[in-house]
């Protein structure tokens, strides 16, 4: 009889359904202090096998199975333990009280007062009701042990506990952290949140600072609205708390030891942040609204894409601030910011992230909708991309452009649920309660600094106007905007609160408002913490004012080059190489002895060795970069005996530059954006991203279009990022043939970058060294090879390397007399070797084959001096390519080809016909097409 009653009790409890996770939570509380749990549970836990120092042979799986048995058997488990066979009513309720505490920790956020408009209606959560736990108001005066609830008391009356739980978890802050598996992190968060019931006392000085921030945020928007009515500004109104939030975050970061803060955000509130946080001169912004611009800045960009840098005074010293430039592709700036932070950390030799803080600011629809967010989260704890955690802030105005229905914008309860993939704590906070905002801001930073992980703040607010100020929001959100029109601005709400509590009077508030307005009229900086920039920013001076012909000494003594080569083929005896890798290193020894000519992998590694020996650092990332997708690089060795890694390039010389090679996560967009951010923050490092196959760069097209190709024209941002994109038609089908050369050539203008197609090991050696040594920073796009990595003709001697010259154009190499030439074939890349071999087979001596190794900037001078003048008598010129006619270089560079041939000559095309697909999928058809285009080029 008793057992059936107990079974009914068990089935109705919070533990029904085999809630082993809950029992483990109780067990963790027991381990912390046995008095945290009831006598019953204490007796059960004490009966479990000991792991700490007693019965060490008892595996964790055994204990886990006992937990499962307890959850499954319920009261029957007690009969086989040391627990008493009967339970008292008070003990039953004690267990229920602990369940109630756990329920609030898990689900209290669902009843929190988060929406300033009170339109956000959460479903009823029965777990948060007393009745669900068989508790009633009759139990209010009973004292219960509160277990690990970090209120500073061992026992509380149920009434006080219930009030405290609601104040802590259901006020203006909704905390989500119980998805974190690390107990230490959960306990830390519970201590910080519960000890002050999520509402600590703050000083009058802090309250005035908050108010001043709200006055500035509101005043700025009203000023712009009155001076420039109808102009797009992507107003912050409704999310005004962001300004005191950021200022509080930066100040707390400075007090915690940070020296730099890098911020990434989209449009909403950017102008406000520029003026009221970073200290941009308002008069400069107003000039931009009036249409004035500096013609020396190039093409420029719209106001709400602009970045800015300044120094900000904090209690811990000046902190350098950088707001990243950002195009309209919303979330793409996030990995750019993280990459910039990693560069700054490396420059400061800071490995734990304490010196530089990344802050990314998101829109609610964008963070849930754009895949680069997931990619960036996924990188956050990886070796090559971690920065010690990022503080992520969502300006949650509950509308995505014109879409407000949750079922249209995401498939999760919250827009921030994506953060759970990395177990980041999430703090939802009502933006109309700026003191709660300040509390979670400090809490978030302290968590990030303590555990070196990402943390999310969901600033739940609203958008007072449409997506931009020209939109009419009532058309799509009538109910929301009827409420917004009647809703007071955050400044008024907080000012009324402070006057009611006697912190400040109405006259002082009016004075703050009028003083801010006067400061805007004056046009000077309105941020008291603003300071002129000093030593925080990297010096770009050595890289300014140089053109493509900037002089540099690329020569190297042969003995020095061989010495460098010996350093990169040496490895400890403890490193046992895989047989193929051992043979490759044996071949490299033979190359150093000049018994074999240099292949691609050896020449490339020699380039890296020379660069780091000069003190320059190199960062190379990609999905197979350590080994090389095509098994050619093997710069990172893996011992077959213990899996240990060894990188010879890190042992070139005593004072060498840093050499880092990381196999990246399976991402293109976020990784390329990260490397762009790194390269724009660290010109002294050669930064390289290698695609697994060249067409994989398609996944990063937005980075290429909106940052890499146009960043200098729009924002004056120099960048030396190098992309290695394997390219060549080997019969591997549409997706593994083309790096889409035509897309890069289409974007060529204003000398924005270099597009190169090196065809020999010596060329890749000198191209890489030129990118690092030449005193200019422009992106380098490389159509790198696949089959040429081991092609018997793609070899070079040491003498070809030591001259230090990358040849933009390579003339005919066979013994062909120029006066006998009747046709000149121009080409780039792998097809050259197909043409060369076939011409030799045909024993033709009247056709010259010219390689154009740099397609942009096109080498007109070298062509005129070395090629056109030499073959000026030839009237038959051909451009030969492997790619279809509508792809490759033919259409985008044809005007350059025409400009390079003699007057009166004709130019024809030899290659595949136009195609919607980059290549055919059938190997037989590929071979047929390849033979046809080669024969076409060689047939007079």
Features:
940 residues, Rossmann fold, 4 domains, 7-stranded mixed sheet
Describe the structure.
- The protein has 940 residues and is α/β, with parallel strands linked by helices.
- It folds into four domains: 1-87, no CATH class; 204-211 and 230-473, Rossmann fold (3-Layer(aba) Sandwich); 558-802, Rossmann fold, CATH 3.40.50; 809-938, Multifunctional 2-oxoglutarate metabolism enzyme, C-terminal domain (Rossmann fold, 3-Layer(aba) Sandwich).
- The longest helix is centred in the N-terminal third of the chain and has 24 residues, at 204-227.
- Helix content is 40%, strand content 13%.
- Strand 9, helix 17 (434-451) and strand 10 form a beta-alpha-beta unit.
- The strands form five sheets. The chain has a nine-stranded mixed beta sheet with strand order 3-9-10-8-7-4-6-5-11.
- Its EC number is 1.2.4.2.
As a percent range, the share of strand residues is 5-15%
Determine the CATH topology of the largest domain: Rossmann fold
Span between termini = 104 Å
Secondary structure tally, helices: 33
Number of domains: 4
Structural class: alpha/beta
Which sequence of strands runs across the widest sheet? 3-9-10-8-7-4-6-5-11
Low-confidence stretches: 1-18, 51-59, 68-87
InterPro entries: 2-oxogl_dehyd_N, 2oxoglutarate_DH_E1, DH_E1, KGD_C_sf, ODO-1/KGD_C, THDP-binding, Transketolase-like_Pyr-bd
Keywords: Oxidoreductase, Thiamine pyrophosphate
EC number: 1.2.4.2
Family: Belongs to the alpha-ketoglutarate dehydrogenase family.
